[in-house]
Amino acid sequence: MKTPVVSADSHIVEPPEAYSKHIDPKYRDRVPRIVDDGKGGDGYLWEGIKRPLDLGLMSAAGIPAEIMPKEGPNRRFYDMHRSGWDPKFRVEDQIKDGVDAEIIYASVGMVLCNARDPLYKDALFRSYNRWLETYCGEVPDRLFGLGQTAVLDVDSAIEDFRRIKAAGFVGVMMPGTPIQEDYDHLMYDALWECAVDLELPICFHILTSKESAASISQFRGHKLNGFMKLIRAIQDLIGLFTLGGVFERNPGLRFVGAEGDAGWLPHYMARMDHAMTRHGYGKNGPLLPRLPSEYIRENVWLTFQDDWEAFACSHRMNPERLLWANDFPHSDSTWPDSMPMLDKHAECVTQEVKDQILGLNCIDLFNLPLANT
């Protein structure tokens, strides 16, 4: 029996019914809708944004890089990868890429994490969760969803976590920026205790914080410089949880940083250790009883696609905390050529480490009940 390959970060591309079918009736006239983006393609529009959110790059997997700038954005929703919204086609696309299962994140929902009206955001996420439950339920041994929460406050978020667990989701897709205080505040410890008790990893994807979303439009020089800033949101959150003592107070908490790559982590850990040992002393002694890198090695999992440095540096991290992903069907996806790429990228590690990163770590993290493969 071969070792399962699991993409730890894949996506759906939400159809309109994801936000309309189960929405609270008082928000029915305000749901996100697909509109002509004025550039030959479709986009999502909802209240509070000035122009439609481009959909084409959310479903550009497999389009050659040299033609993606022309063909990627300029597409109609129902001409995109159908498996992005219809689960009947998903397994075929998994097989094309050599993937046995996927952890499913939202796409439009990433940007909705920054919706200005908290109650509106909460209503949209509740509707989305019910739609995603049905989507993943079509192939329950290959599609594993993450429920979304708006984190209106600690008590409501705890109730969201319980509903998410009851719905069969394997983790929680968190907004990168909370409404009240920040995640290192003691008030959130009750929520982290709930996550530990329910065995729900908390998952932070790029583009779900205000800073990460702003990188798309706020950059210096060439627009690709905005792309380079995306991983900073994951780094900031790791620093927040580590230096804020969240992992010290909640040692069983499982934190996932999604699509922020991982090859940078050895230096980041070393720099954080230096920061604390050189500058982290106060009147009560050192900031933390252990080095920051020790918490990161135990509590932080990172996903990556084509970051070969993650394999090359895996011995300087905790290889049991590295998660490969194909990011299907987004423009950064390695689909449908992931396996040849991974054969090359993983040449520097043992078969045992390769098997861990390509699937076993993800199975263990999310307690996945995979069928025999």
Structural features, described:
By secondary structure, this protein is an alpha/beta fold. It has one domain (6-14, 83-366): TIM Barrel, CATH 3.20.20.140. 38% of the residues lie in helices and 13% in strands. It has 16 helices and 13 strands. The strands form 3 sheets. An 8-stranded parallel β-sheet has the order 1-5-6-7-8-9-12-13. Strand 6, helix 6 and strand 7 (171-173) form a beta-alpha-beta unit. The longest helix has 20 residues, at 118-137. It is globular, with a radius of gyration of 20 Å. It starts with 5 loop residues before the first strand and ends in a 7-residue tail after the last helix. 46% of the residues are buried.
Radius of gyration: 20 Å
* Assembly form of the protein: single chain
Give the spatial strand order of the biggest sheet: 1-5-6-7-8-9-12-13
* SSE succession: EHEEEHHEHHEHEHEHHHHEHEEHEHEHH
* CATH architecture classification: Alpha-Beta Barrel
CATH topology title: TIM Barrel
The stretches of 5 or more residues where confidence is low (pLDDT under 50) are: none
What is the general shape? globular
* Count of discrete alpha- or pi-helical segments spanning 4 or more residues: 16
| Number of domains as seen in the coordinates | 1
Strand content: 5-15%
- For the secondary structure, the number of strands is 13
Can you give the helix content as a percent range? 25-40%
